[in-house]
Specification:
The chain is mainly alpha-helical. The chain has 19 helices and seven strands. Helix 3 packs antiparallel against helix 4, helix 4 runs antiparallel to helix 6 and helix 14 packs across helix 19. The longest helix has 24 residues. Its EC number is 3.2.1.4.
């Protein structure tokens, strides 16, 4: 309800009621309008700025240069040049990197028409290809998967541009004797999802990706174990596999079935779902560690398309995921900040927000296609309600929040300026060709001035549970962007931008 300022003022009692109603509306739920197409363009551009290796001629982020051109040479048997730096550091972590590629591919699969209409499909597919090419390289021989490039402890002891790196580029692997079903499962999922992206435009490449995905899945399932148990302190302080590997095996099987329509993968989902925990428990969202919510949403589409009751339990758990997050229903357990943001934890909280928004949009589409709703106890939730919550989360990121600040770098008038990101915080190699050493670089971490190279499109970790944010490079839990924060946002923004066409 809106007040018409050209009319006579309302009676005092009505005015009082209007004030009470207005005060009760959470900040982030009020109407907001943003240039979603611009935000989408920037969210994809972010990935060009995270590239490792030899940059292509059509690179739009020209302040970046070639880097890590000898990756893999320490083992003398494999080319590991390429891929993405996961966040503000210079290490290539395989686990979050593979998840990023899976989610980017899923975004293209679900919103390809919107991306094409907006002129972004080519850029989005290149972002997927850059990730898939690297993951394909990491599976260098049967039952050998390279998990990480770069000594993370040495890297974190320096503040260097990628172009200047002189820390060890050690390559770490998993194999039959040192298993990592979680990393291998996610890598298989990433290549299977990517194969779908290129099925029509590059069928030969698509077939290569799918074949490799199938072999990696075989390896993941045959030699079971957590990659963080095998690699120990190499990955444990950074990307430990807390949820285990069973969710990644289900995730990979779901993507392999979607990509190949091979019945063995559907049978795997049917036979292992309950035993692997894929249909038990409630999880707020899909993350680089826990894929169960993603499995449940993805499997639900299969249920309706094939009228399969044998995996109907996945739909029940997908509903439970939605109900646990969505405020105002009897099963809601998630924390929502006073300003309306889904809040899971202090460190990089926006990763949960962006993936939840994408899953809500995607599940809403699946529900609409199947004429279904979500059951939250006795309450039925419509697809429109899922869409509204997802839009609210995206709008919060873009500026509809108590601080009236965008959490996407370069978007809007008020966005983070002092971002925890080595390359962004230092003079570019173009402006300062001379090497900046490991310890010399810390002056840029500690400087109070804005980053000289805004890493446009990156979304930072975000505010705390009270909607407060510190624009401080050293407050890395809030001020660091990452590839896996943006991965779900690409599809969410494409959905919203497509609605305005």
């Amino acid at each position: 309800m809106q007040l018409d300022l050209d009319q006579a003022p309302p009676p005092p009692l009505l005015l009082l009621l209007l004030l009470i109603l207005t005060a009760s509306i959470p900040h982030a739920s009020r109407a907001a309008s943003f240039d979603y197409a611009d935000a989408l363009d920037k969210s994809i551009l972010f990935y060009e700025q995270q590239r490792s290796g030899e940059l292509p001629e059509d690179q739009r982020a020209t302040w970046r240069g070639d880097s890590a051109l000898t990756d893999g040479q320490d083992v003398n048997v494999v080319d590991l040049v390429g891929g993405y730096y996961d966040a503000g550091n210079n290490v290539k972590f395989g686990f979050p990197g593979a998840f990023t590629t899976t989610m980017l591919a899923w975004s293209v699969i679900e919103t390809g028409l919107e991306l094409d209409s907006l002129g972004e499909l080519g850029y989005a597919k290149e972002a997927v290809r850059w990730g898939a090419d690297y993951i394909s390289k990491t599976y260098s021989a049967p039952d050998v998967l390279w998990a990480q490039v770069g000594d993370a402890q040495a890297d974190h002891a320096c503040w260097e541009r990628p172009e200047d790196m002189d820390t060890p580029r050690t390559a770490y692997r998993i194999d039959a004797a040192h298993p990592g079903s979680d990393l291998a499962g996610e890598s298989a999922a990433a290549l299977a999802a990517s194969s779908i992206v290129f099925q029509i435009t590059d069928p030969g490449y698509s077939s290569e990706l799918l074949a490799k995905a199938q072999d990696i899945f075989r390896f993941a399932d045959a030699y079971r174990g957590k990659y963080s148990d095998s690699l120990g302190e190499v990955v444990t302080p950074y990307y430990n596999s807390f949820s285990g590997y069973e969710d990644e095996l289900l995730w990979a099987a779901a993507w392999l079935y979607k990509a190949s329509r091979d019945e063995q993968y559907l049978s795997y989902l049917i036979e292992n779902g309950a035993g692997f925990g894929g249909t038990t428990g409630t999880y707020y969202t899909a993350t680089w560690d826990n894929k169960l919510a993603g499995v449940q949403v993805l499997a639900s589409q299969v249920i309706w398309k094939l009228s399969l009751q044998s995996i109907a339990r996945y739909k029940t758990q997908a509903d439970n995921f939605v109900c646990s997050v969505l405020p105002g229903n009897p099963k809601s357990t998630a924390t929502i900040t006073p300003g309306g943001l889904l809040y899971v934890q202090e460190a990089s909280n926006m990763q949960y927000v962006t993936s939840a928004a994408f899953l809500f949009f995607t599940y809403a589409k699946y529900l609409e296609d199947a004429s279904q709703t979500v059951s939250c106890g006795d309450v039925q939730v419509s697809p429109d309600e899922l869409n509204a919550f997802a839009k609210q989360q995206v709008d919060y990121i873009l500026g509809n929040n108590p601080r009236n600040s965008s959490y996407m770098i370069g978007f809007g008038r008020n966005f983070p300026q002092r971002v925890h990101h080595r390359a962004s915080s230092m003079p570019s190699i173009e402006d300062h060709p001379a090497k900046i050493g490991c310890q010399e670089g810390f002056q840029y971490l500690q400087a109070s001035s804005p980053n000289p190279n805004p890493i446009v499109g990156g979304v930072v970790g975000g505010p705390d549970s009270s909607d407060q944010y510190s624009d401080d490079r050293e407050a890395f839990t809030q001020s660091e962007p990452s590839t896996y924060i943006n991965a779900g946002l690409v599809g969410a923004l494409a959905t919203l931008a497509g609605q305005t066409l």
